[in-house]
Amino acid sequence: MLAMISTWRMSWEGLRQGMALLREGCGAGDAVTRAIQCVEDDPAYTSVGYGGLPDRSGRVTMDAAYMDGETLRLGAVMAVESVRNPILLARALCGRETNCVLAGRGAEQFAIARGLPLRDMLTERARRRWLEALDTEKTAAPYAGHDTVCVIGLDGAGRMVVGTSTSGLFMKEPGRVGDSPVSGSGFYCDARYGAAAATGLGEDVMRGCLSYEVVSRMRHGATAQQACEEALRDFVGHKREMGEEDGSISLIALSPTGQPGAATTLPVFPFAWGHGDSCALYAARRTPEGIRVAETTGEEMAGEP
Ligand code: SD4
User: Fold this and answer.
1) pLDDT tens digits for range 232-243
2) Angle at 28 between CA 300 and CA 153, to 5 degrees
3) 250 Cα to the center of ligand 1, angstroms
4) How far is it, in rounded angstroms, from Cα 301 to Cα 305?
5) What's the CA angle centered on 220, arms 215 and 225, to 5 degrees?
6) Of all helices (H) and strands (E), which one includes residue 195?
7) Tell me: the pLDDT tens digits for 92-102?
8) Is residue 144's pLDDT more than 60?
9) What is the model's pTM?
10) 20: exposed, middle or buried (Cβ count in 10 Å: 0-12, 13-18, 19+)
11) Which uninterrupted H or E stretch holds 237?
12) Which helix (H) or strand (E) holds 198?
């Protein structure tokens, strides 16, 4: 079974292109990379790649990761600047026995050595948003204007890959790194049991190692959907016991047979799932009874990221 799952509405076009590659016989790695590149290259999305919103000092710094579920090898980059496609850099690092996670300047030097395209990632629109935020301080809240593109792919040979890419939180402190490049938190993939990825406030996701938690539950027999719901319910339950708010966390997962899972603490969390010949947008919703997941349409999702 060919399948892909991805976070937010912004991943829709990339998921469709990735599914087309899978149908042509390409591997999960190429499909996931293509899907993420689509979002990174589109300046309309202000939380990933080109057009991403900057940190407090006005610099766009990005986190990305790539993990191969067959070998459990991964590559990740943290707080990297001026690299046009952070996902290509993360993928280039995957497979190395050492030095597979690089940060900042060293990551950029590796990109240059590999001949990966560089780009000034700050668009005029993002620069204006930053100047406004400096002026008013009103968008300086730690959770404002951010979403990570997370994509999981399963190809015809049963290989599974997960990738993530984000520019993190708008107005973050220089040097801040989120969950997206942190193994077990923002992503995890073990082709024997399944793969998972997270989007939301990275500081929270890392407290619960939520992607590993989801895959671990699948290893012990949960479906992808059960694993997402249970992992999120447990973590949020513990936060409540500690007197904390639920926060903003959304999870996706894919089983080795291509079955999807999603859960969220948000009123609505759009995601895309493709399998075989079909692709559709879905929404996970938090309801008083628990978490509901339903197919939806582009129009219904208008206005969602
Ligand atoms: C981060 N998890 O840097 C990312 C941001 C995100 O929805 O996914 N927001 O914390």
Assistant:
1) 999 999 999 999
2) 35
3) 10
4) 8
5) 55
6) strand 194-200
7) 999 999 999 99
8) no
9) 0.95
10) middle
11) helix 224-241
12) strand 194-200
pLDDT for 169-204, tens place per residue? 999 999 999 999 999 999 999 999 999 999 999 999
Give CA–CA dist 6/153, Å, rounded. 9
What are the φ and ψ backbone dihedral angles of 93, each rounded to 5 degrees? Answer: -85, -20
Is the CB of residue 148 below 6 angstroms from any atom belonging to ligand 1?
Answer: yes
Q: Which residue has the higher pLDDT, 303 or 41?
A: 41
CA-nearest of 251, 158, 161 to 204 is 251
Beta carbon of 179 within 6 Å of any ligand 1 atom = yes
Mode of pairing for the β-strands spanning 101-103 and 73-80: parallel
* Residues in CB range of 7: below 8 A, 6 or more apart: 147, 148, 149, 150, 151, 197, 199, 250, 252, 269, 271
The predicted structure's pLDDT at residue 302: 63
> What is the rounded average pLDDT of the residues 136-162?
81
Pocket test for ligand 1, best of 171, 199, 211 (most atoms within 8 A of CB): 199
Instruction: Locate the ligand 1 atom nearest the alpha carbon of residue 250 and give its number.
Output: 7
Query: In sequence order, what are the residues at sequence separation of 6 or more whose Cβ sits closer than 8 angstroms to the Cβ of residue 91?
Result: 29, 33, 66, 75, 163
Task: Please give the pLDDT value at position 288.
Answer: 74
299 band by pLDDT with thresholds 50, 70 and 90: low
State the distance from the centre of ligand 1 to the C-alpha of 52, rounded, in angstroms. 12
The 10 Å Cβ neighbour count of residue 131 is 11
Task: Give catalytic residues, as residue numbers.
Answer: 148
243 and 232 in contact (C-beta within 8 Å)? no
Nearest to 163 by CA among 294, 60, 27: 27
- Local structure of 234: helix, strand or coil: helix
Give the C-alpha separation, 149 to 51, whole Å.
14
* pLDDT bucket at 46, cuts 50 / 70 / 90: confident
